[in-house]
Write a structure and sequence with these properties.
Elements (H helix, E strand, L loop, with lengths): L1 H18 L5 H32 L4 H37 L4 H16 L4 H24 L11 H18 L6 H12 L8 H5 L8
Helix pairs in contact: 2-3, 3-4
Length: about 210
């Protein structure tokens, strides 16, 4: 036992010494990026999948748990692959050219996005829509900072909020098929299920009755 513990300590010291080597920093950063992508993807997707599955999906407990596990794994895997690809391409570019070039960040992310998130499935589409909304806000702020558009005299957020909610409810009411399934489920719960009840039980306690009254 003592020999095994000593060997483990030697191995840990060697690993820590390796991690301190600056010449390996780029490669190690790619590996840690893969690790962080996997962990972050799992942390983000697991609670979301848990809530959405138990709120809106039917099926047995086993089927629901399997769905949660599959969604969590897919999100974690894709984010890990993307970070690994992006950081790997940037490291290769920096090594070849000797410096970081802003356009290369865009190009590396485009390649990673195409390879990892190019498959049109529910997980990827949610991630892309999440990013798209933040990109639009970021580009708007950047345009003001650079002077491409004048600084608004009043906060434009109330107008943006009004237009976003007006548009999404119009789409839900008249072009529902254009919205993502999870958003359709959420809006059905909020705006259609609230139109139906039979007694106090499914008016305040439950959303829908499960008996045959």
């Amino acid at each position: 036992m003592a020999g095994g513990a000593d060997a483990l300590r030697v191995l840990l010291r060697a690993a820590n010494a390796l991690l301190q080597q600056r010449r390996y920093h780029a490669a190690l950063a790619v590996i840690k990026g893969f690790r962080n992508g996997a962990v972050y993807g799992a942390k983000i997707r697991a609670p979301h999948a848990l809530v959405m599955t138990f709120l809106f999906k039917s099926g047995s407990l086993r089927e629901k748990l399997k769905s949660i596990a599959q969604a969590t794994f897919a999100h974690s895997r894709n984010l890990a692959y993307f970070v690994f690809t992006y950081k790997g391409l940037l490291a290769a570019q920096s090594r070849l050219q000797g410096k970081k070039i802003p356009f290369n960040s865009f190009l590396a992310a485009c390649i990673g996005g195409w390879l990892v998130f190019g498959d049109n499935n529910p997980i990827n589409s949610q991630i892309i829509m999440y990013l798209l909304s933040r990109i639009l806000f970021g580009l708007s702020r950047l345009a003001v900072e650079k002077g491409y558009i004048p600084q608004p005299k009043q906060d434009p957020f109330p107008l943006v909020a009004a237009l976003v909610w007006g548009t999404v409810l119009w789409l839900f009411e008249y072009h529902r098929e254009t919205l993502q399934p999870s958003l359709q489920s959420s809006m059905t719960y909020l705006y259609e299920d609230s139109e139906v009840w039979h007694d106090l039980s499914d008016f305040l306690i439950y959303n829908k009755r499960t008996d045959s009254k």
